[in-house]
Fold this sequence. Notes:
heterodimer; A: alpha+beta; 4-stranded mixed sheet; B: about 400 residues; alpha/beta; 8-stranded mixed sheet; 8 strands; about 55% helix; globular; disordered N terminus
Amino acid sequence: MAEEERRLVKTERGISWKVYAAAFVSSLVIFGIGIWTGLQIEKGVTDQLTDTANTISQSWVSLETLLMMEDSPMFCEYITDQMQSFDSETFDLGKKIGYMEERRGVDPNLKSEYMSLETRDYLTAQKINTRCGTNTSLILYFVSSSSCPACPQQGAELTKARESGDIRIYTYDMDIKNSMASSLAKMYDVTTYPSIVVDGKKHVGLISSDDILVAAKAG
Amino acid sequence: MVSHVDILDYSSCDLMNLTPVRIVEYLMMFVVLFYTISILFLFVKNRKRFHQANPKYSDWEPKVSIVVPAYNEEEYVGRMIQSILDADYPKDRLELIVVDDGSTDDTAKVVRSFKDKRVVLLQKENSGNAAIAKNYGIQRAKGEIIFTLDADSWITKDAIRKVLSHFDDDVAAVTAAVKVQPKEKMSFLENLQHVEYMFTIFNRRIFSFINGVWVTPGPFSAFRRGLFDEIGVFDPKNIMEDQEMALRIQSANYRIASSTDATVYTAVPNDLKSFYRQRLRWNRGGIRNILSYNFLTHYKYGDFGAFIMPISLASIGLLFAVLLIVSVSLKAFSPLNFDVLLTIEPIHLFSAAVIALTALWTWIALKEMDASIDAPLVIAYMFIYSYLISFFTIIALVKEIKGDDTKW
């Protein structure tokens, strides 16, 4: 079809508001679902960890019974076995809580529960050291998750020290309300962080893994 | 027992870990989500007319000129000329202008071997610039509609008619469906580019419904003669003159239409080095053009100013978002000693949603384009190729910021 030239005219522009509004609302809904699902997962994980803490806590009843038999000749053998099992469970729980805390925060109640478990472990380990003549160094590590720039470094130094010696570390976040942690801090007059107590002797400020090992040996 | 009374209150903020960096990540993720969903909705809205041309222009037969810049193209130029001569279009209304840009091979000889009065050979000294050669041909073209075509490309028999059928009174240019030339044995890289080109045809068609086309591809695009008279010809100083022309058309308030079935086959790089160089040029040119036409980011330019330009300007951020989506996904499912659930955060769920929607988008695009592509290739496209080209874009951005020399 041959014909005369068709003239070019300016276009009339518009904005597809309805499409963008629908897309915006849909994106918000997906975001909402994401947050809701995330919270449900979070709650499920917290419940699971709390159940683990409770199970460990209930198991302490049997251990405490064992502690009453400290005059028995087999006491040290039994208690050491039992403690290893508790240590492993508590350590695993602590690792999970630490991971959660690092990534997205953790329920303070769960953390407090964990600190109570640690204190029980610490007191029992102290008793075993005395009764059975073992030389495991017990280190109390006091931190503040909100106001302690040196704490991450101190944590790394402690981890390094644990790998090189017979050491148990009990971490207390003093931002979390826990009566046992407060009592221990008061007992050793801990007011600044990081502070560590190696076999009953307090060290304030950042301390290297080598110095920790020296202090542990001295203790 | 530990009380859970305060868990939800405490974790709604802590769970999202709303540090400034994380807020930016969420925002970028939201933009990607919004962009993807917008495309899908635009498709749904225009689905019925997706493959339709403009009935008002379906039998339009204006005089057309096809301008082809050629430099040392003796190998391909004959195939290109033959495809034009075979095209279903009235002989008296078609001229093919091959601009030999000072070739040192037998390009001119091959052109002269076609004894057809529709074929015009123009020879000039080498300018080292395709835009100058194109402009040289355009200035001598007599057609009402001027096509630009690459010498190493060729068109299907009905391509000219199909392009013309997408014109309208306010349409200044029409883009064709640029596809990777079929070969007996295609390399992995060529296959991936094939998927990309099909995906691009689909997207360009969607953008054409909101007058959001921002490039008139060199391999085959059609322009009204009057347009060049009004806004000028290709900018020889621009390394992405095809895109600059499209942005200039947008700024002049004309429409660019797009065809899904006016097919042109083009050669693509088949080794990583030339592919990288091509993408570097596209991206650096693209970044410069988007920045120099940032004034188009205004609601008076309709969807182009309110959606396309802001998204283009934010695309650098979007690139980082793409990389972020991959990194957070990998982080969430990396091997750990404990439960996967422990590692999942809302941002992982969002990235999963974005990946799912992108997969849906790709699937719809390839289905609409009738492209039967094997699933592993599509997966490789989504999870390797798209990140590779995003990576190239980031390199281009860095080079632009550093002001590295450009030699193409």
